[in-house]
Design brief:
alpha+beta, Dihydrolipoamide Transferase, OB fold (Dihydrolipoamide Acetyltransferase, E2P), seven-stranded mixed sheet, Chloramphenicol Acetyltransferase, 446 residues, four-stranded antiparallel sheet, 9 helices
Amino acid sequence: MDVKLPNLGEGADSGTVISVLVKPGAPVKKGQNIIELETGKAVAPIPSPADGTVGRIAVKEGDKLAVGQLILVLEGTSKGAAASDSGSVAPAPASASTSTSAPARKKAPEGRAAVPKAEPTLTMAAADFEQVVNENPVAGPYVRRVARDLGIDLRWVVGTSKSGQILASDLRDYVARLRALASQAAAGARTDTQPEPKPVVKPAAAPVDFAQWGPVTRKPMTQLRKTIAQRMVDSSSSLPTVTQFDQIDVTRLDELRKKHGAAYQGKGTRLTLTSFVLRAVASTLRKHPIFNASIDDATDEIVYKDYVHLGLAVDTEAGLLVPVIRDADKKDLLQLSKEVQDLAAKARDRKLGLADMQGGTFTISNQGGIGGGHFTPIINKPESAILGLGRGASAAVVRDGQIVVRTLLPVALTYDHRLIDGGLAARFVVDLVAALESFPESEVKL
């Protein structure tokens, strides 16, 4: 039985093998993890689909793996297991994961057998792409979402996996043939006075010989670092951003934290400044819903969300991860403190799943524990704003005509200026400062 990489969920169709958990000749049980795969910012264990003995292993650590690629050969499996589980290692919708329950595929019409992998030719006709080759196409949620976004009827696409499932590569091939057909039509309509436009080719990065100035060590970028880099470039190059700075007097919060900290420790968690900030941000977002909204670039609409899911940036040895605290506005200080502790531990142990880092509406990045001061955080797209926190420090300030020592916390709010104007940002920060400086002790008491 060939065990192949299954559908990984929406938004992920490949990953990097970070560990192989079995060896040739070793017995495995159904559901036992056989490899760990890094997909974007998450590490996903891939389980065995059946009992058996490991035969040939087709991957090693560091290999890049796409959906449908062979992981290993499992020997000694029953025919029933091979029939029901081959090609579907991770849990997935029944219509996309089992070949016994999937409807029988119709054969492609005569003359279309070589279409999926054939090079585009100029003998194609539009009708070739509107023929039903399968009344009941089998595809994973990611492929279905992409097809829906592109307006492609999956009944027209031939699946090339062993079970007949439509893969992401099948969609790419189909789109490539559509583009070739469009080019053919455009070439036929172009006149001599309309020369064919030259494609824009991004110049390749020029290599730099750093070793000419001294000793160097080269290490390949991890998949996580590549993902972070791409998302940061995408955000900074596509969003017009402004950063609003201010400072918050957290002297009273420090007093509340010390006063009630032991009670929280008795409940198995720590009361930190981050917990106060999460609670205050959630309530402020309810007053200013535009900061909890997003722009849908595909439809030019503003999407107002009726939920508050706060992302919390966590610094790990592997890189920056942003787990999401869901419905933060509905949780008290104790619940928020426990969830911060649990998610931070999962992030540092690389135990976060994709679902743990999706759906955020607003992100908080706290560098205070490290010692950072003022900084300008980058928006976690498609969110519209992010709050940066620095290190609280004692400073002499004037209160009621007297010079007193207070603990001041620097804050920075970066926002998408397409959606949010400066006046709105200033009001948001003013309300956030007020919420933290006048935090009610009744919400802290257990």
